[in-house]
Structure formats: C-alpha cells, structure tokens
Amino acid sequence: MKTSHIFYIEPFCYLNYDKRKVIIVNTLSNEKKIMNIDEVLTKYIREIIKRKNRWIKLDKLDIEKRSIRDFVKNIKQIYCGDLIDFKESLPPYLPKNELVVEEDRHIFQDQNYEGEFRIECLTEYLHEITISNNIFCEIGCSYCSNAYKQLNCCTRGTEVNSNISKTIEELIKQLNFYSIKRINLVLGSCEIDSSVSCSIKKLSKMTFSINIIIHYKRLNYKKIKYLMNISSFLELEIIIDEYITENEIEILNKIYLKYQPNVKFTFLVYSSNSLLSYEKLSNRHKFSKLNLRPIYNGKNKTFLKKLLMISVKELIDKKINIEELEINKTVNRNYFGKIFIDQNGFIKSSRNSVYNFKLDNDSIKKMMLKELKSNAYWKLTRTILKSCKDCVFNQLCPPISDISILLEVENLCNYKKIKKYKEI
Predict the structure, then answer these.
(1) Half-sphere exposure of 315 (CA within 13 A, CB side)
(2) CA distances for 329 relative to 296, 349, 414, angstroms
(3) Distance between CA atoms of 67 and 21, rounded to whole angstroms?
C-alpha cells in the first residue's frame, strides 16, 4: 500500500500567522516559537488552520523546501506536532479546538398558532447583568461623560433612581429563563428603602450571586449593616480613590473585618500619584481584595497609555490555554454574555452602547439576537479590528475594553516593535 508523508499539529497547539511571521504555542508547556514566513509556508499553514482535521499531506519535494523543514523542526522542538509516514487507508484524526457562537446554529425559531416565536438555546449565553441606580449629576458634566461610562457610579450626584425596584421586579420575572450567574447592583447613594430591600431579598433567594457596588463617599455603615444582613450570599464592592481620608479608611476597615470575605475594594487610578496612593494603601492595610482600576478622566490619556501598554515580552511570556485563545478569536470576554440596564430601565449590551431596548418580556432576547448577528460588542474581537486583525499576536492580547474605546485606542501595544520582532 502506498505510503505518504503527513504533517500534523496537536490539538493543544496554537498556530497563527501574518505576512511576516508565524507563531507556534504549546499551550500545555507555554513554550513558543516565532519564525519568519514565506509564500510557500504561508500556503500550507493557511490550509492547516482552515482544515477541521489538523493535518496535511506533504510530498518529497515539499519536505525538501527549507522553510518547510525549519517549520517542522520548530514544531517538533516544542512537541506541537510531527512529520510521519502513514498508509492512506488510515488517516489520523486530530480535531482542532473551535468555539462556535452563531445565532443560526444555536437559535431555533418556530411560529406557533398564536403567532408567538419560540427561541431555544439563546438563553444559555446570558450570565451577568448590571443594574444602575444612578442618575446623572449634571447633563454634559465632564466627570459623568468619562467616569460614569466606565463605572456606572457617579459620586457627585445625590439623586437615586426611583424606578430601581420596578426594574428589579420586572427582571425577576424573566430570570428563570436564563443561565444567570451574577447580578451587579449599582447603588450610587445607598438610599435603600423598603421596596428596594424587598427586591434584593427576592433576588438573593435565586441561584446566582449578587454584587452590590457603592462608592465610599456614599457609604453609611448602618445601611451597609442592614444591607449585608439581608443575605449571607451578598457581596459588597466599594469604590475608593486617592482622596480617601483616614476616618473613611477606618470605616472601610470596620466593614471589611466584619463582612470579609464578602467585601472587596476597587481603587481608581487616574495618575502616578493615585498609583502611589494605591500601593501605600495596599501595603498598609493588607486588604486581601484590593483591585486596581485605571480610569480615564478626559485628561490622562498619556498616563493610561503608558500604564496599559503591552510589551512584546509580556505577550511572549504570557501563560494562556487553548480555550482562552479560541474564546479570544470568537467573542469578547469583557462583553459577551453580559447586559447593562441603565437608570431609565433600558437594556444595553454595554454601558456605552448606542442602541437599547426597553425592559419587557422580549427585550432581553431581542438585544441578544442583535448582538449575535453583529460585531458590536459581544463579538468585538481583535481578529476583526482593522489595527489588530493582521497581527500574529491578536489572540494572545487581552480583549478590547471600555477604557480602550474611551481612549479611542484599539491596540494598547507597540505594534511597530511587534512587527520587527525577531525569531525565538
């Protein structure tokens, strides 16, 4: 029986290329190889990536080509594949990892005799909801136009959303149809009346976690105590910044000691001074859950670009598994499966989304269908962005986020250096 040469790639191996280079990653050992690419090698790599079965046939002339030999050598060095002889009647089965998120495959629509549509399987995608309780402090305020879009948490306003209980009650009616894992409830000024607490109690009896988000300027220890006593499953996230006083820190310590591990802190960083304040607070008080959150205030674009810039070395050293790489290729983890309900009861796929739906019986499904049929937020990946789609590192980079959109910078990396990066 005739014997052929087969070149194969292991399922745990990540492979990507651009016009100049090809990157090979063993996601089990985190070993990586980057090498130059030519037209001959590009042809075969393109074929491997497109195939559902990760192997191709090579003849003797192919194997004798230098670029092919070097590529096979690099693949073998990090145990990502091999060149073997096999009998044509017994082809190998090496399926590639692939995440499929398509509305035409996952949604079944059927019109019944009453004219209603039945949508199945779509509900499995939704897993997180954020409900805002804030009303804008001043129309056109520079603070609101920047910080609010990143936090949903205005610290300068005193009003609260009187419709929040109605929003929660309407949401509760629909939650049983979705695979919700988490609800974020933004209580800007922490004015919790009986109707709001009653709604939170109803939410707490369901099977997902509830994260209450409050700015430290709106903290009231008595009300926090009342809130946390509603349910032991509630989590509290407190937003803090460099202007926090010693007295306010003492209140935070008191809350943290009483309700840990259900309390975490998010420190807003605007400048190098706030970064120093974060480090001092972290070292001094040893909060186990003190997260850093860079915030754009309209004036600190240069600082944030420097802070968030990704180096080539960071991308090369980054440990990532094959599942994350496939997710980064298909969906945006910062947005996918999440919806935002604003202070007026409108549903959005992101707090910065230009389109919205009024919360009712079918609005969540309509919004999800719109997202799955477009590349607005849920599918906003670097593989489709103009500045990133041709980069060999586009699936290794973190997904685009709100702060990238506000900074109007799609790729927070030094792309010129990446293009010139040498072989490893």
Answers:
(1) 25
(2) 27, 19, 21
(3) 12
Residue 276 resides in a domain: yes
* Main-chain phi, psi angles of 200, to 5 degrees: -65, -40
In this structure, what DSSP letter does residue 92 have? Answer: -
Are residues 320 and 189 located together in one domain of the fold?
A: yes
Of the candidates 346, 333, 355, 347, the residue with the CA atom closest to the CA atom of residue 399? 333
Structure token digits, residue 12: 């745990």
Tokens for 370, please give them.
């719109």
Residue 370, number of CB atoms within 10 A of its CB:
16
Digit-coded pLDDT (tens) for 115-141: 344 445 566 788 888 887 654 444 444
How many separate domains does the chain show? 2
Q: Is 279 inside any structural domain?
A: yes
Residue 30 backbone dihedrals phi, psi, to 5 degrees: 65, 15
Residue 104 within a domain: no
Whether residue 309 is found in the same domain as residue 178: yes
Tell me which DSSP letter residue 231 carries: -
Boundaries of domain holding 134: 118-417
Q: Model pTM? A: 0.81
Tell me, yes or no, whether 155 and 204 share the same domain.
yes
Q: Bridge-partner residues for 413, per DSSP?
A: 310
Judgement on whether residues 78 and 139 belong to the same structural domain of the protein: no
**Number of neighbouring beta carbons within 10 Å of residue 280:** 11
The string of pLDDT tens digits covering residues 185-220 is 887 654 566 777 777 878 777 767 888 888 887 777
Task: At 374, give phi and psi (nearest 5°).
Answer: -135, 180
